[in-house]
Amino acid sequence: VKLEKFSGTIENYRKAIEFNPEYAYAYRNLESVLRNAGSLSEAVLCCKKAILIYLIHAEYHNHLGAPLFE
User: Fold this and answer.
1) Is-contact 13 34, C-beta < 8 A?
2) What is the Cα–Cα distance from 35 to 5, expressed in whole angstroms?
3) What is the pLDDT along the chain (70 residues), one digit of tens a residue?
């Protein structure tokens, strides 16, 4: 049920990533939405992808910890 609530937002971020696969900010935001929707394993994967694209951004590293502790 939670995932359905966020389905439109998730779809939009996935479209943004499809359009530009190197758009780290879209992966980071998708991670937040997926985490709030309860899809923690997918959230971790999105956060790791954002980190791979933009290694030096500390915020992305911080966000990786959030779904790992839930």
Assistant:
1) no
2) 13
3) 577 888 999 999 999 999 999 999 999 999 989 988 989 889 989 988 888 887 666 666 566 666 656 5
Alpha helix (H) residue ranges in 6-57: 7-19, 24-37, 40-53
pTM score, two decimals? 0.78
Eight-class DSSP state of 6: T
Up-side HSE of residue 41: CA atoms within 13 Å toward CB? 0
Dihedral angle of Cα 32, 36, 39, 41, to the nearest 10 degrees: 50
| The pair of three-digit structure tokens given for residue 26, joined into one six-digit string | 């879209």
